Amino acid sequence: MKLPALQSWLTLLRAPGVGGTTVARLLATFGSAEAAVSAGAAALRPLGLSDETLQFFVQGDPEGLALDLEWLDQPGRGLLTLDDPRYPERLRQIAQAPGALFYQGDPELLALPQLAIVGARSATPQGLENARAFAAELARRGLCITSGLALGIDGAAHRGALEAGGMTIAVCATGLDRVYPARHRQLAHDIVREGLMISEFPVGVAALPEHFPRRNRIISGLSMGVLVVEAAPESGSLITAAYANEQGREVFAIPGSIHSPMARGCHRLIRQGAKLVESVDDILEEIAPQLRARRAALVAAPPPEDPVQARVLDSLGTEPQSFDQLLMGSGLDAAALSEALLALELAGEVASAAGGTYQKLRVTA
């Protein structure tokens, strides 16, 4: 993006009273951020912009702009705007989609099928283990794990995906120049190295209470479904689940003991219609139609045989094999193997078997 266009976008994102809905309306009216910012009060006021916003367009925020440009001028960092073809389509379709996303890491992960895992900050040891184990297995099956970098369930989900050699996205409630909570600084570095961190908030923005619901709508908006692992009755995770319902996403919940306060939020969701989850297959069964539709849309004219999938099938032979065995036999990296296995499962060529192994369903002569 050329500097004048980037500066115009950063002005829009820092302008008071300008959210994603206003940004979309400005783009529809003027065609670009540059044209919108320079349109003048007479053209902008009919769109409902306040005098404060119009004055900001004139004066700008030189200090904030300098901070943003300095942060962006580093490898692996960037800005995905609403008019960028790489902006995730699922997120674009939600109400009040963010006008842009600051990112650090690999933005290509936003195009992958995602499953959100969220839950209590003060999670139980069993809840943390459930989050880690579900994230790891879902990542091995080719899904990107999306969460909010919070303490407790969020952190366990990110770590589970990374430990499995999979992909994870952290959606943050601050500017990406800071890590919140500070205890997750190392985890944030690991995610940037292996995955992706995103935020709709510019550089320097601190963690404020009203930012977390905004973050939560992005977590659910990016995902095919939201898995709530543990949640108290007033948990912020229930806000994410509510957004998921509004956005037409699947909602999953893991049940717990009737004596545990951390299970009550999940039990409430199940009573309201969330799918009770006991295994990863319960989730994959529910989202399989979405995955098939997505694959059909991405591959309008598929080649007669995908060479990566063919390599995986050759490695399987006739006996079930573990993920690690397939890694060695196929010579693929974990991400490519996960994606190929997921595609083969959806095509009915491969099934997951006991003990975390995979088995070929069709034996050719």
Structural notes for this entry:
The protein has 365 residues and is an alpha/beta fold. The protein contains 17 helices and twelve strands. The chain has helices spanning 3-14, 20-30, 33-37, 41-44, 51-59, 62-72, 89-92, 125-140, 153-163, 185-194, 211-222, 236-246, 264-271, 280-298, 307-316, 323-330, 334-346, and strands spanning 77-81, 100-105, 114-118, 144-147, 168-171, 196-199, 225-228, 250-253, 275-276, 321-322, 350-353, 357-360. It is globular. The relative contact order is 0.10. Mean pLDDT is 91; it is low at 300-304.
Index terms:
365 residues, alpha/beta, Rossmann fold, Arc Repressor Mutant, subunit A, nine-stranded mixed β-sheet, three-stranded antiparallel β-sheet, 12 strands, globular
